[in-house]
């Protein structure tokens, strides 16, 4: 079955610095990779996604890169701010079952 | 927009009782809805996938007679936890997808269930 691994599990960065979260997936047929931000006690919020026909996508301070050959993708947050503190989940579409498989999550803390 | 609501946001019930959680897509029609369970400091675990008008597809290990899912309309799905026990206490989250050609899932705010 599909498996998504995510690293690191926790990440602390100084405000203004960049944060990078990495994920790998196992299903070579996966073609959709969303990233979610979850604040305490709330549901996940889609922050950016990428499809397999592109290698990079950027939205203001957030960017995602995808390497299909290596089956890994990464989230980059630049100029981090206190409100970026949250748990971030990567995910991949398990195409044969049409369901999204989540990574284990990264707790990001921004130090003032 | 793509807004999904859940009701209630929090519920406390006694062991042996049943609890119903509603998931609504407010500004779009959701062909498919998903139900997840999340334990503290853990990832989301898919429980079942439901398509409007059809029976839900449950993930391995999820008891379909315990977690009853109904998707009677394109904007509403319900999850009923029957004969709840303390181990059913968890954060339940639904998501909705707009259609078969749409990969995006939009999540509700979650429901915190506590069984005493």
Task: Describe this protein's structure.
The complex is a heterodimer of chains A (112) and B (116). Chain A has no helices and 11 strands. Chain A has strands spanning 4-7, 10-14, 19-25, 32-38, 45-51, 56-59, 62-67, 72-77, 86-94, 99-102, 106-111. In chain A, a hairpin with a 2-residue loop joins strand 6 and strand 7 (62-67). The relative contact order of chain A is 0.34. The model of chain A has no long low-confidence stretch (mean pLDDT 94). By secondary structure, chain B is mainly beta. In chain B, strands 2, 4, 5, 6, 9, 10 and 11 form a 7-stranded mixed β-sheet that branches. In chain B, strands 1-3-8-7 form a 4-stranded antiparallel β-sheet, with no helix packed on it. Chain B is globular. The model of chain B has no long low-confidence stretch (mean pLDDT 93). Chain A binds chain B through residues 32, 34, 36, 41-46, 49, 51, 89, 93, 98-105, and chain B through 4, 6, 34, 42-44, 46, 49, 93, 95, 103-110, 112.
Q: What is the string of helix and strand elements of chain B?
A: EEEEEEEEEEE
Radius of gyration of chain A: 13 Å
Radius of gyration of chain B: 13 Å
Q: Give the rounded overall mean pLDDT of chain A.
A: 94
Secondary-structure blueprint of this entry?
The complex is a heterodimer of chains A (112) and B (116).
Chain A: E1 4-7, E2 10-14, E3 19-25, E4 32-38, E5 45-51, E6 56-59, E7 62-67, E8 72-77, E9 86-94, E10 99-102, E11 106-111
Chain B: E1 4-7, E2 10-13, E3 19-25, E4 32-38, E5 44-51, E6 57-58, E7 67-73, E8 76-81, E9 90-97, E10 106-107, E11 111-115
Parallel strand pairs in B: 2-11
Antiparallel strand pairs in B: 1-3, 3-8, 4-5, 4-9, 5-6, 7-8, 9-10, 9-11
């Amino acid at each position: 079955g599909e498996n998504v691994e995510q690293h690191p599990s926790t990440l602390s960065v100084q405000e203004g610095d960049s944060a990078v979260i990495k994920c790998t997936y196992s299903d070579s047929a996966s073609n959709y990779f969303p990233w979610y931000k979850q604040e305490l006690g709330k549901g996940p919020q889609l922050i950016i996604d990428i499809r397999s026909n592109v290698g990079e996508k950027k939205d203001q301070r957030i960017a995602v890169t995808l390497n299909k050959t290596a089956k890994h993708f990464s989230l980059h947050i630049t100029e981090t701010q206190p409100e970026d503190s949250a748990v971030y989940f990567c995910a991949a579409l398990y195409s044969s079952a049409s369901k999204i498989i989540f990574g284990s999550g990264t707790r990001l803390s921004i130090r003032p | 927009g793509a807004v999904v609501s859940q009701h209630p946001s929090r519920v406390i019930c006694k062991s042996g009782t049943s609890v119903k959680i509603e998931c609504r897509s407010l500004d779009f029609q959701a062909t498919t809805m998903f139900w997840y369970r999340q334990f503290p400091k853990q990832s989301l675990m898919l429980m079942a996938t439901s398509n409007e008008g059809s029976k839900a597809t449950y993930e391995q290990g999820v008891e379909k007679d315990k977690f009853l899912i109904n998707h009677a309309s394109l904007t509403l799905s319900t999850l009923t936890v029957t004969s709840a026990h303390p181990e059913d206490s968890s954060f339940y989250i639904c998501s909705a997808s707009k259609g078969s050609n749409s990969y995006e899932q939009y999540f509700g705010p979650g429901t915190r269930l506590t069984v005493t």
